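Journal club side-thread
Mid-discussion, someone asked how the predicted structure for our own chain would compare to the paper's figures. Pasting it here so we can look after the session.
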Amino acid sequence: EELLDQLGVGVIMCDGEGRLSVFNRVAAEWHDVPAEPSVALAQWADRYKLFEWDGLTRLSPERVPLARAFAGEVVRDAPMAIQNGERLRFIRANAAPLVDPDGRRIGALAVLHDVSALVDSEVMLRLQRAALEAAANAIVITDREGLILWANKAFTALTGYTLEEARGKNPGALVRSERTPREVYTSMWDTILAGRVWSGEIINRKKDGTLYPEALTISPVLGPSGQPTHFI
């Protein structure tokens, strides 16, 4: 028990009757309640405020990883959430039945890994992606060579090119006109390859051939070495 309390993961075990037998320190902190040996598996989902991955739907008793293991299933990376006060902790659970040398079931074991930080990062990335998509201005992300990796819907509305049509192509090959002096592009590339932001006005051409003036800003994304890896 002392060893289990030193682990950075939650460890929960039940005996052959489905009663709580081990609830290590981390598991107790995450559940925000003391271990209660009298709590049966069927009561766990409500007693310990367990939820599905969406954080809204209560986890049904038969879907609790430890209960599934107690029924004989080996559970790998099962997603769930634990409510602790106002905080919702996202968990990946692994669980397995425990048997004695004669093959008799003597309980079950669950190991819980906190992946809340990863979930928070995924949520933030989705919000950032949604913000880019919803932006009124056309936004394009290219690699260091200037080939388009991603463009938002405003880019399609402005130029007439869909992301599928634009991906893998240089913006110049799609929208460049002959109305902008060549030295403007030379200055642009010299600036952004040096890791600095470039801003200027150019004349571009839409897919249907219509010319339009554009106020353009290009920001380099710098890698660990300080050199540009992408442009926005």
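Post-session note: Residues 198 and 218 are 5 Å apart (CA to CA).
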